[in-house]
Write a structure and sequence with these properties.
The chain is α+β, with helices and mostly antiparallel strands. The protein has a single domain (about 25-175), classed as Hotdog Thioesterase (Thiol Ester Dehydrase, Chain A, Roll). The protein is built from three helices and seven strands, in the order E-E-E-H-E-E-E-E-H-H. It has helices spanning about 80-95, 160-165, 170-175; strands spanning about 25-30, 50-55, 60-65, 100-110, 120-130, 130-140, 150-160. A hairpin with a 5-residue loop joins strand 2 (about 50-55) and strand 3 (about 60-65). It is globular. The model has no long low-confidence stretch (mean pLDDT about 95). Bound molecules: dodecyl-COA. The site of dodecyl-COA has 20 residues, from helix 1, strand 4 and strand 7. GO terms for molecular function: hydrolase activity.
């Protein structure tokens, strides 16, 4: 992965262990919001990512490129692929049981991805220091060990739940997840 210093953890940054309250190894990860473009089942043209965590710290997910996701004819749009990476990265950092948002996302496009392709995504954490989480992801064509089509590195920044209340609609999220608190 070609990544900048802004998405590379400073030397010595620890990789956190699995957190208390994280889904057990092998758990399916549900959607955080039913209308989310990345994972929501109620989004008509969304990515509908289906994800599991094999070990409570990383995420594996699949996404099948549909006709609504085209850029060039019958090829995935690069922005859609970046959205898929953002989503799987967001799912993985949430395993650390704090709210984070993407601050920076860097993407390498390695292979064209035709409509109908199932991408096998994987995301993991390279370290957390203070509010900053350094994450990485890859998408492979057709199988978990297929050729890499897309790679991403990201910086996520921890926010309070007030971020979602002040700038968005926290009530819409809490209506679906009773475990989210605005003032934990
Ligand atoms: C309900 C739950 C459901 C869970 C919801 C799950 C959603 C999953 C969806 C996928 C995730 C998304 O797409 S999230 C949506 C896309 N992202 C966003 O909308 C975020 C918009 N940006 C912001 O709100 C803000 O810029 C923040 C929160 C990222 C940072 O603002 P801030 O809180 O004032 O903090 P700030 O001091 O600026 O930055 C903190 C530290 O991070 C560094 N930093 C900040 N931005 C950058 C950057 N682009 N590149 C490098 N470094 C950066 C700063 O230098 C600083 O380092 P130092 O000085 O401390 O060393």
């Amino acid at each position: 992965m070609t990544r900048s210093s802004r998405t590379s953890p400073p030397p010595g940054t620890p990789v956190p262990p699995a957190q208390l309250g994280a889904p057990p190894p092998g758990s399916a990860l549900g959607s955080h919001y039913s209308r989310c473009f990345g994972c929501g089942s109620d989004h008509p043209t969304g990515l509908h990512l289906a994800a599991v965590t094999p070990d409570s710290t990383t995420v594996e997910a699949t996404f099948t490129v549909g006709e609504a996701h085209q850029g060039a004819p019958m090829l995935a749009h690069g922005g859609v692929l970046a959205a898929a990476m953002d989503e799987v990265l967001g799912m993985s950092v949430y395993l650390f049981r704090k709210p984070y948002v993407t601050a920076r996302l860097e993407t390498d496009y390695v292979l064209p991805v035709p409509v109908g392709t199932t991408l096998h995504l994987r995301a993991w954490c390279n370290g957390i220091t203070g509010r900053k989480a350094y994450l990485e992801a890859e998408g492979r064509v057709g199988a978990p060990d297929g050729p890499v089509a897309v790679r991403a590195a990201a910086l996520f920044v921890e926010v309070s739940m007030r971020h979602f209340a002040e700038h968005g609609d926290l009530a819409a999220i809490t209506a679906e997840h009773q475990d989210y608190e605005v003032n934990p």
